[in-house]
């Protein structure tokens, strides 16, 4: 059973920055491809960013490209999401998730992730 725990959310003014962390319980974390998603009130949970197990490849939603950076430290079993130039539209609960290793179509699909954290709230004020 993989446990994922997010932290680092909070309240920030527009234009500010936050860094989210997602700590994994498993020592096999270095073999997991990981993603970040977010869910605003009344909306679906949307893809934000993705990183391969080695950290050599990363992908982003168009809405955050150039502002957010996903990274990982496999020695610490942790994946990060650095968020800069935050906008009120970035307000959401942010979730990290582990992507499964079979029947893969797109890293943007929620149903390809089999373990999720509990989420951390990010609120950006205007």
Structural features:
mainly beta; 11 strands; 48% strand; globular
What's the alpha carbon Rg, rounded to whole Å?
Answer: 14 Å
Question: Mean of the pLDDT scores?
Answer: 96
Uncertain residue ranges: none
Q: Number of helix segments?
A: 0
SSE inventory with pairings:
Layout: E1 4-7, E2 10-13, E3 18-24, E4 34-39, E5 45-51, E6 58-60, E7 68-73, E8 78-83, E9 92-99, E10 113-116, E11 120-125
Parallel strand pairs: 2-11
Antiparallel strand pairs: 1-3, 3-8, 4-5, 4-9, 5-6, 7-8, 9-10, 9-11
Task: Write structural notes for this entry.
The protein has 126 residues and is an all-beta fold. The chain has no helices and eleven strands. A hairpin with a 5-residue loop joins β4 and β5.
Please summarize what this structure is.
This protein is mainly β. Helices cover 0% and strands 48% of the residues.
